[in-house]
Amino acid sequence: MLNLVANNSTVTEHEAVPDRITSGPRGAKPRRTLSRRNIVVYGTLIVVALYYLLPLYVMIMTSLKGMPEIRVGNIFAPPVEITFEPWVKAWAQACTGLNCDGLSRGFWNSVRITVPSTIISIAVASINGYALANWRFKGADLFFTILIVGAFIPYQVMIYPIVIVLREMGVYGTLTGLIIVHTIFGMPILTLLFRNYFAGLPEELFKAARVDGAGFWTIYFKIMLPMSLPIFVVAMILQVTGIWNDFLFGVVFTRPEYYPMTVQLNNIVNSVQGVKEYNVNMAATLLTGLVPLTIYFISGRLFVRGIAAGAVKG
Amino acid sequence: MTSVSVRDLSLNFGAITVLDRLNLDINHGEFLVLLGSSGCGKSTLLNCIAGLLDVSEGQIFIKDRNVTWEEPKDRGIGMVFQSYALYPQMSVEKNLSFGLRVAKVPQAEIDKRVARAAEILQIQPLLKRKPAELSGGQRQRVAIGRALVRDVDVFLFDEPLSNLDAKLRSELRVEIKRLHQSLKNTMIYVTHDQIEALTLADRIAVMKSGVIQQLADPMTIYNAPENLFVAGFIGSPSMNFFRGEVAAKDGRSVVQVDGVAFDVTAYPARAKLQPGQKVVLGFRPEHVKVDETGAGDAAHQAVVDIEEPMGADNLLWLTFAGQSMSVRIAGQRRYKPGSAVRLSFDMGVASIFDAASENRL
Questions:
Q1: Given CA atoms A182, A188, A190, A194 in this order, what sign does their dihedral have?
Q2: What is chain B's Cα-based Rg?
Q3: How far, in Å, CA of B76 to CA of B73, rounded?
Q4: Residue B237: is the preceding peptide bond cis (ω within 30°)?
Q5: How far apart are CA B210 and CA A150, in angstroms?
Q6: Using CA atoms, how far apart are residues B220 and A193, in angstroms rounded to an integer?
Q7: Do B88 and A204 touch (CB under 8 A)?
Q8: Contact: A207, B102; criterion CB under 8 Å
Q9: Which residues of chain A make contact with B82, given a CB cutoff of 8 A?
Q10: In contact, A279 and A70? CB cutoff 8 Å
Q11: What is the mean pLDDT of residues B303-318?
Q12: CB–CB contact A227 B82 (8 Å)
């Protein structure tokens, strides 16, 4: 009896099966665009993006307005009449301290500081890192430890001693002095960066090159350099933005005619005489920030790749 | 004339002794395999011979020239690494010629030598490719070629086949052997794979904790291992060991193992076995004969536990003398688990070790 009932039920189920196949869910699961999860995620992202972009928007708009329009007070409104006057003034005429030739002087000073500092510091640090990673010379570990400890000493502690050292060397107040300072202060972090990258390359490659008769420099230039483009890009970005944005060393170690762009910007924005020219200040700030911004845009992807490569290979 | 000679070589990393007063003479044209488990110092020894590691003590001679303080490039060696170590940004051709270009060899000579190496290794179609575009086997060929173009006296191989899959490994193994037969160079080959060692070597040096346990030709290593470690390390499945005590019985020498007596009178002992001496008996799985009835010694009764048919032969796991042992028999002879068999042992190819010193008797 019981058996029979069971049989019956299987029969009815069996008949119901084709129906379920045609009517039931099939294929990719549909996703609603306006799900609660999406609203929260994208909502947060939009709010955060606005939070960061709004100041930039205000700056660009203000820099394109004339002073009368700014005095109206609506900072979010786009300019009625677009003018590039403030940009020209910021670049060529704004007064910083004694001279009134705008930011252009500071820009070229910054270029003359950043380019050699970046090249020298990366060249020296990459060779340091290579030597530390591959040629384990006597005292290498001690040397490396000292270098790393150097990275943790606050800059402020060292300013006065460095002033004295530079003065004794006869380069205090010159661009050379500032370049030396930037090169030295970039050394710990860059050496660490390069050492870890080179240590992550297969050691057998280095051994093979030695068996092939290559020496210190041949291995560095022919084997290591061509394999290390990502880490050089990372180092370049770190150095260019770091040195370009530096303010403290620029003020302390140079004379006014050699002030980098950041210091000049400060002098323009903080000058107390006369009317506050907000449009010129905004244009000057944007001009100063343009170089790091460009670097990020151009090499952002390479930067991420270099960092990731270092992370994966240890 | 010895090709490579290592004398009293020691290497310490701080307080850790990796190699301890090691001596090794390798004849000209010989294929020597350094065999051992990881961490035994075999790769370290190879790196010392190559000059990639500075030794703490001792001397290294290559072609009767003291090269202890020489740079790797001046030692007349070529080296092949496990990870191939090809320069990734260079084409195969540039990889092969790198050493020659560093040494400022004339271009015509470089071309000639690269062409010759490419021909020997049959990699001519690959010369323009980058290493990333090659398969594992092709990469290893190029790595061998890099040693080949430098016209060296001694080839050093550091586990060159360990990164390849099983099929490719056995193919390249044959090729390396063929290469050695045609070049007749001295080759030193590091591996942890005993099959590679047994098939390739003229002589094998079995190493453990920085000491060479036995240096002999493959057949001697296999059939007459010098100590318990070598006996256990070589052979798969491993040699069967029985701990027992020597006794004299009716004028014959026997070893008593857990109530079972082995007549060892026929064993070619180096020194006479003393009654009362504690020993370890060793039999390779293929040196034991299995009979259903009759011929075997009635006392050597065993029970089949597991059968592992491998095609060509059949591996039986038996319980005998209170322990598990393996026996290799012909593939077509099959036994059901639980069936009783009789065993007979060939003392002529057995091994007997002293239980305390673990050395061969």
A1: positive
A2: 25
A3: 7
A4: yes
A5: 41
A6: 53
A7: no
A8: no
A9: 204
A10: yes
A11: 90
A12: no
Task: Provide the token pair at A133.
Answer: 């990673």
Q: What are phi and psi of A181, to 5 degrees?
A: -60, -45
Structure tokens at A93: 């005429």
Per-domain residue ranges of chain A? 29-83, 104-313
The CA distance from A206 to the nearest CA of chain B, in Å, is 8
Q: B62 - beta bridge partners?
A: B4, B65
| Partner A contacted by B89 (CB < 8 A) | yes
Phi, psi of A180 (to 5 degrees): -60, -45
CB contact (8 A) between residue B102 and residue A211: no
Residue type, B194: Q
- What is chain A's pLDDT, residue by residue, as a tens digit (314 residues)? 444 444 444 444 455 555 566 677 778 888 878 888 889 999 999 999 999 999 999 999 999 988 888 888 888 888 888 888 889 888 888 777 667 778 888 899 999 999 999 999 999 999 999 999 998 888 888 988 888 888 888 888 889 999 999 999 998 888 999 999 999 999 999 999 999 999 988 889 999 999 999 999 999 999 999 888 888 988 998 999 999 999 999 999 988 888 899 998 888 888 767 778 888 889 999 999 988 888 888 877 766 665 555 444 33
CA contacts within 13 A on the Cβ side of B166: 1
Q: What is the distance between the alpha carbons of residues B255 and B245, in angstroms, rounded to a whole number? A: 5
Q: What residue ranges define each of the domains in chain B, with the CATH number in brackets? A: 2-227 (3.40.50.300), 240-354 (2.40.50.140)
Mean local confidence (pLDDT), B232-250: 89
Cβ contacts (< 8 Å) between B143 and chain A: which residues? 208
User: Quick one: tokens of B336?
Assistant: 């059901």
Cβ-based contacts of A212 with chain B (< 8 Å) = 73, 98-99, 102, 146, 150
Say how many residues make up chain A: 314
Tokens, residue B12: 């310490």
May I ask the CATH class of domain A104-313?
A: mainly alpha
3-state SS class at A64: coil
Q: Which residue among A205, A213, A223 places its CB closest to the CB of B99?
A: A213
